[in-house]
Design brief:
The chain has helices at 82-89, 95-118, and strands at 2-3, 9-18, 23-32, 40-49, 55-64, 70-79. By secondary structure, the protein is an alpha/beta fold. The longest helix is centred in the C-terminal third of the chain and has 24 residues, at 95-118.
């Protein structure tokens, strides 16, 4: 994301899901140029790890050349808890359906924006 003008804002949402022996990596550039007064960026990177052998990496690259700008970055990694599975199974879902529901919920905000932009 490159901010060239004044009063610009951006929001980056990254969702990664890993399973098996896989790894997901977010690498992102946010660049605020010197004349981009009052610019703002918020970057959110969330990873869902479905097995014990998978991993996630978040590697932000932030270049801010304007003292009046705000650049924020947050990252989370989580696993599906036994409590989440138990809750779903108590409502009649088997484990596969429960995992599917939780994964879909994890991706929901990105998918909604994506589908909205296709209209």
């Amino acid at each position: 994301m490159i901010h060239l003008g004044k009063n610009t804002s951006s929001r980056i949402i990254s969702k990664g899901i890993s399973t098996g022996n896989s790894s997901n990596t977010y690498r992102g550039l946010v660049s605020i140029h010197p004349k981009s007064n009052n610019s703002r960026n918020f970057t959110q990177c969330d990873s869902l790890l479905l097995t014990d052998n998978c991993s996630a990496n978040t590697i932000p690259y932030i270049q801010s050349k304007n003292i009046d700008s705000i650049v924020e970055h947050e990252a989370t990694s989580s696993k599906i808890s036994e409590d989440q599975l138990f809750y779903c199974q108590q409502r009649g879902l088997d484990e596969e359906e429960a995992v599917s529901l939780i994964v879909n919920g994890f991706c929901k905000d990105v998918l909604q924006k994506f589908l909205w932009n296709l209209r």
